[in-house]
Design goal:
By secondary structure, the chain is mainly α. It has helices at residues 2-7, 19-36, 39-58, 72-85. It folds into 2 domains: 2-36; 39-85, no CATH class.
Length: 86
């Protein structure tokens, strides 16, 4: 998601000529795009990654043929509601 957002801004780098300036600008763009990502989406991604890690663990480290849905969105919504209720 972050990679795609940064790549969409490729034209911004065409004006720079030195690698140092390009890299500094790249980090600025990465930080800008990171700040635009909805925290709930990042939380959901983390929950999904935990689910996949558990599936890999249960499979003994073997490659998964299909990732099962583990309810990451539902847990994210519940966590957000619980945090809002505090």
């Amino acid at each position: 998601m972050l990679n795609s957002a940064v790549r969409k801004r490729w034209k911004e780098f065409m004006q720079y000529t030195t690698q140092d300036v390009i890299l500094n600008r790249l980090w600025d763009v990465i930080q800008d795009e990171w700040d635009k990502i909805d925290p709930a989406k990042l939380y959901c991604i983390a929950e999904h990654k935990k689910d996949i890690a558990e599936q890999v663990k249960k499979a003994g480290g073997k490659k998964l043929k299909k990732e099962a849905h583990g309810g990451a969105r539902r847990r994210t919504e519940a966590a957000i509601k619980a945090a809002a209720a505090k």
